[in-house]
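Q: Structure tokens for this one, please.
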Amino acid sequence: MKRTIYLLLALFLASLSSGAQNLSLSTVVIDPGHGGTDPGAVSKDGKTYEKNLTLDIAKRLSDKIKADCPGVKVILTRDKDKTVALNDRAAIANKVGADLFISIHINSTAKSSPNGYSVHVLGKSSKKDRDLFAYNMDVCKRENSVILLEDDYTTKYQGFDPSDPESFIFLQLMQNSNLEQSLEFAQQVSDNLKGGPIGVNRGIWQDPFLVLWKTAMPAVLVELGFISNSTDLEKLKKETDRDKIATRLCTAFKKYKAKYDGTLSLDVEVPAGNTEEKVEVTAGEKAQETSAEKPAEDKKTGKPADEAVEKTVKDVKPAPAASDGVKYGIQVLAGKAKLTSKDKALKGYTPYIVDTGTIYKYIVCVSESVEEARAGLASVKEKFPDAFLVKIEGNSTKRVK
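A: Here is the predicted structure, written as tokens:
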């Protein structure tokens, strides 16, 4: 019964995101982690609370975005020290139709040596720990455990238990269309925080954070250093360093917006010390190096041997070979794992695959004509409700209205 409920919830949330085709990044929701009765992580001397650090950085980021991007509406899930349920944080973003959700946190461990920042998007923690989600589970349990402070959490979160690994199974269902954009923004954050007050880059991770699952738009959770590490803590306690962190986050936002909707120049100022090298995804999260396989063919007819696959794709033109020209198609999936052409997730389609270096994008109905590609959109959406039309140039794509 529990898994049935999870599936229905996942399908409902996916339907919310499927209708969002507005390409203008006009609203961003910034979520200062914890607050009120939930202090979050606490320094060893008991004097510094995560909830205060996240609120200060979030406010600074809000002010900077408003100043640099006057056309963008910025909403904070809390603007003072008050308790906000995880469910309500996501609900705020969903209600206003936000185009981006940024949750700000400070990390902590029992040991004092770990330090640095990390960026998280929704997903299972790693392939090798798929069954128990043991990888990075301590962080997930800590960030999700705030729901236990709510009297009616068993009703509000449909039985989700942050201390039970089985409760994370339903998050596998939410590898939705927002993953691509979430990873795009996560990479900008990871790149632009590099060289700042918190010097160590711990990479980009996929993790089952409940607040990210509940949002119906691209969303990231940023851990801005370790309150349990003396070096990170000293930086975080300084107002000037918190302002530098907020500036770098703002730069990441502006670069993402420029790429997302083209309304800002890409030549935004990068804080001193930043390097533009490509972010290195943590080893546990690297994409599978599975080579694509060509469907088996009947030697006489040259048609796919699998009759079921043939019927499924009979109205779809094969994806053309890669070339340098501009093409158009319908993107159906995006993710870090490279799928074979026979993977069930592709539902019988043989896709054109765009490798961005960070994720793989799976595109069908590829054509040199935008009108011809668009003609297949209604049919493709019957199997992939979140599918959308894209323009393909080399190893990059851009959504087309």
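A few notes: The first helix runs from residue 2 to 18. The CA atoms of residues 35 and 51 lie 5 Å apart.
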